[in-house]
Amino acid sequence: METLTKKQKQILDFIKKFIKQKGYSPSLEETAQHFKLAISTVHEHMENLEKEGYIIKKHNSIRSICINKSMPENFVNIPIIGTIMAFDPEKYKKNPPKTYFALKVKGNEMSKDGISNGAIVVVKRKN
Fold first, then answer.
1. In the CATH scheme, what is the code of domain 6-67?
2. Cβ neighbours of residue 58 closer than 8 Å, sequence gap 6 or more
3. What pLDDT digit, counting tens, does each position of 57-111 carry?
4. Exposed, middle or buried by CB within 10 Å (0-12, 13-18, 19+), for 103?
């Protein structure tokens, strides 16, 4: 899951509020009208929200958007950007892609520290 764009967050908040007030999800048209956007633009945002796991849609069904309740509010998608040898942490230090990223560990050189072959390590970039 990527971090939501400002517009995606606004659309997600609109969907949540709409469902809370009316008991059913807004249509694409209602969402487009609310944000003064083209339906195709709203559709693209909805597809991205679904792909990232924020909403669940029943395709070919009207008003079928649900908020993914299993997704914590502060959930952040951290991309796995590559594989790194367990003894080579300097490889991605120069140009990390985001504030947080993940690397898959190859090798057992750090197993004494609890980091073994195949582990996923989450890294926070220092500013």
1. 1.10.10.10
2. 64
3. 877 767 778 887 765 555 566 666 767 666 555 655 565 556 677 777 888 777 7
4. buried
User: Which secondary structure element, helix H or strand E, spans residue 49, and what is its range?
Assistant: helix 39-51
DSSP character for 88?
A: -
Name the DSSP letter for residue 108: S
pTM beyond 0.70: no
17-59 confidence digits (pLDDT tens): 998 898 889 988 999 999 999 999 999 999 989 888 888 887 7
Question: Which run of H or of E encompasses 67?
Answer: strand 65-67
Domain ranges of the chain: 6-67, 80-124
DSSP string, 8-47: HHHHHHHHHHHHHHHSSPPPHHHHHHHHT--HHHHHHHHH
Q: Tokens standing for 111?
A: 């197993």
Alpha-carbon separation of residue 71 from 52, 56, 74, 85 (angstroms): 10, 11, 8, 32
